[in-house]
């Protein structure tokens, strides 16, 4: 099995890559931070490819380098906590690019083997209806809609598009809030729960990971 983790330099992406390393024959990891990515690839004996998801040519080059995939995990994302009336366009774009436009580029350019699984990390809509999170909420709900349409369009290709709804997970994403919720899952717990629910039959369209008790 050949797998690619996009956003592998992040909290959840790196935990997923570490779990997958011993389970797949060929592991590719991708991120923007070259130093972090190189260290992770060395640790896991994985192939690495740097790509900025806001640039279509970089995404297309990454995916043509990786080739046909059995598993793709899109674990990249960004957040801003800025009210609509204060938000700069550049801040809006940074969030929407990481959560939504990058996923569109990936769906457009990825090559999949029959029966492949492509996993995208989403949210519980009710948890992101929060002041300052407009760009994050819009892009995550847009991601969900993108997957619903692309799933129908790509059915004949035999690829399974899967949305994972995650509750709070203790990663750097929370740095804009200055505090991580007490009940947050660790990235390792979240990654294990995702994989536990991923390789079941029939393949799920949505995986919902429950909040910690
Ligand atoms: N943490 C939570 O509570 C939570 C809850 C629900 C859903 N999620 C979702 O889970 C996913 C992973 O989040 P996380 O918590 O692991 O966050 P994180 O630790 O901040 O990681 C974010 C990742 O996204 C990458 N990234 C951001 N913008 C990029 C761009 N333009 N091009 C390429 N890579 C880019 C970062 O790469 P570099 O570091 O290399 O720049 C990093 O690998 C996100 O989609 C997030 O929305 C998280």
Characterization of the model:
By secondary structure, this protein is an alpha/beta fold. The chain has a single domain, classed as Rossmann fold (3-Layer(aba) Sandwich), CATH 3.40.50.720. The protein has six helices and seven strands. It has a seven-stranded parallel sheet with strand order 3-2-1-4-5-6-7, sandwiched between helices. α4 links the parallel β4 and β5. α1 crosses α6, α3 runs parallel beside α4 and α4 runs parallel beside α5. It is globular, with a radius of gyration of 16 Å. It starts with a strand and ends in a 5-residue tail after the last strand.
Notable features of this structure?
213 residues, Rossmann fold, binds NADP nicotinamide-adenine-dinucleotide phosphate
Number of domains: 1
- How far is the first residue's CA from the last residue's CA? 34 Å
Stretches with pLDDT under 50, minimum 5 residues: none
> How would you state the average pLDDT, rounded?
97
Bound molecules: NADP nicotinamide-adenine-dinucleotide phosphate
**Would you tell me the structural class of the helices and strands?**
alpha/beta
Strand-and-helix sequence, N→C?
A: EHEHEHEHEHEHE
* Rg over CA atoms: 16 Å
User: How many DSSP E strands?
Assistant: 7
CATH superfamily: NAD(P)-binding Rossmann-like Domain
Number of helices: 6
Task: Based on Cα principal axes, name the global outline.
Answer: globular
The appropriate CATH architecture is: 3-Layer(aba) Sandwich
Report the major sheet: 7 strands, parallel
Strand content: 15-25%
What is the CATH C level class, in words?
Alpha Beta
Order of strands across the widest beta sheet? 3-2-1-4-5-6-7
């Amino acid at each position: 099995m050949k797998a690619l983790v996009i956003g592998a330099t992040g909290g959840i992406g790196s935990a997923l890559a570490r779990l997958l390393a011993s389970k797949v024959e060929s592991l590719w990891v991708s991120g923007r931070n070259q130093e972090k990515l190189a260290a992770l690839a060395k640790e896991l004996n994985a192939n690495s490819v740097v790509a900025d998801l806001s640039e279509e040519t970089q995404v297309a080059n990454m995916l043509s380098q990786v080739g046909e995939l059995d598993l793709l995990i899109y674990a990249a994302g960004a957040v801003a906590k800025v009210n609509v009336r204060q938000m700069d366009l550049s801040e809006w774009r940074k969030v929407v690019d990481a959560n939504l436009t990058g996923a569109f580029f990936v769906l457009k350019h990825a090559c999949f083997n029959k029966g492949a699984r492509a996993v995208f990390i989403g949210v519980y809509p009710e948890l992101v209806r929060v002041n300052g999170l407009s760009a994050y909420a819009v892009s995550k709900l847009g991601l969900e809609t993108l997957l619903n349409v692309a799933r129908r369009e790509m059915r004949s290709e035999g690829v399974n598009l899967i949305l994972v709804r995650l509750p709070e997970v203790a990663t750097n994403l929370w740095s804009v809030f200055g505090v991580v919720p007490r009940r947050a899952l660790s990235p390792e717990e979240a990654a294990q729960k995702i994989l536990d629910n991923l390789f079941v039959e029939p393949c799920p369209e949505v995986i919902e990971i429950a909040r910690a008790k």
